[in-house]
Amino acid sequence: MTTLGELFDVAVARLQEVAQAPLASVAADERAALAGELEGLLAQVQKGLGPRAYTPVPTTEERALTRAEQNLDGCLDRARASLDTASRYLSPRAGEGGPAGERIAAAARAVGAVRDAIGSHLGPDRVPLTPYAYLLRHQKAFDYLAYRYSEVARAAGQVAHRLSQGAGHPGGADAFDEARTTLNHASVYARAAARDADHDVAGFPTALPVEPVQAAATDATSAVITRLAEDSERLSRAAYGALHDRADQRLSGSDLQQISRWNAMSRLLAGRTLTHVAAEMPDGAARDGFTGAAAVLREPSKAWRDAAAAWAHIADTVDPREHPRLPPPGYAQVRQGKAVRMPSPDPHPAAVISRTSAVRLGQLLFGAQ
Questions:
Q1: Quick check: 121 and 132 in contact, CB under 8 A?
Q2: Which of 14, 33, 68, 283 is the most buried (most CB within 10 A)?
Q3: What are the DSSP E strand ranges found in the chain?
Q4: Which residues have CB under 8 Å from 164's CB, separation 6+?
Q5: pTM of the entire structure?
Q6: pLDDT digits over 271-300, tens only?
């Protein structure tokens, strides 16, 4: 699962690679192309500021830019204008940016993916689809985004500084230097205003669809562990959708019974896996931690087992209008005593995910087969 912190790290890393690359011998048309790529990156940053990006709860009035976002927004406008000036001084027709241009474009895609990751937790009407969306109701979360955008701005300023070296045209070099100075100011002002940022927002993941991913005997151990984490995210989203009645398919009593049974089995298998790992470890705090965690998992396993037993006494009463009307049985069927089967709904995706998680834990404990 990709997180916001990882996306920002990718954007900054790609820009730093360009800033450290030798660009003194780059031709004027290629340098103009790089200025255009850098301007496009800054445009992506601006799209991520304030109400132009996302609002967790639909309101008649969009929220105003925070102080950190205001500091960034104004400086980014001036830096983009400077880059446009540099591009026009260097070449009337920009060429290809080459490998450096590809890295700047990759950084721009990563910045755009930040908005996509956050937007994946919101519906078309911007109503939350997962519990993560509620994190964006807090000032400290906005400050974190502004803080990381300021890091991108600073790295872009380093690229502008490198482009000013050997620019050839004095007006172009001055424009690049002005862009660098403006971006440095943007970084300093935004970071100062966002000093209370909640850096735990870095772990904000991209929302996964509820549809399950089946386990396969060919899955590597590392893939099994990754899939287990993704199963947990999918179950969290399914539970949130069921709680707020936003899921396409409602949970039935039999679904809840199956989910409870498989969750009880998953906790049991997870505890046994930890015990197995602890047995191979030397004595110490780590081994005690594994053993203690295995013991703690017995309680939720028992709780889920009790829940499954309780759901076994629940009978679903489903509105017949939700099923297609069946034709009456024919005369021959009646004479032969054949029963006409009522249609049965497919299991809820959460029930399938719960079962698949238990299978993955079984793969860890007993082997792929």
A1: yes
A2: 68
A3: none
A4: 172, 173, 174, 176, 177, 180
A5: 0.81
A6: 999 999 999 999 899 999 999 999 999 999
Three-state DSSP class for residue 3: strand
Q: What is Dmax (Cα atoms) for the chain? A: 99
∠ CA 102-106-112, rounded to 5°: 145
Neighbours of 295 (CB within 10 A): 12
Which candidate, 178, 150, 156, 142, places its Cα nearest to that of 108? 156
For 176, the 3-state DSSP assignment is helix
Over residues 173-218, the pLDDT tens digits come to 888 889 999 999 989 988 888 888 999 999 999 999 999 999 998 9
DSSP letters of 93-153?
S----HHHHHHHHHHHHHHHHHHHHHHTTB-TT--BSSGGGGGGGSHHHHHHHHHHHHHHH
Token digits of residue 97: 């940016």
For residues 235 and 304, the answer to whether their CB atoms sit within 8 Å is no
R_g of the chain, CA atoms, integer Å? 28
pLDDT higher than threshold 90 for residue 353: yes
Q: Which of 99, 138, 104 is nearest to 35 (CA)?
A: 104
- Output phi, psi for 302, to 5 deg: -65, -40
Burial 67-95 (b: 16+ CB within 10 A, else e): bbbbbbbebbebbbebbebbbebbbeebb
| Higher local confidence (pLDDT), 193 or 65 | 193
In this structure, are residues 215 and 189 in contact, taking their beta carbons and an 8 Å threshold? no
Of 105, 120, 101, which Cα lies nearest the Cα of 4?
Answer: 120
Q: How far apart (Å, rounded) are the C-alpha atoms in residues 139 and 70?
A: 14
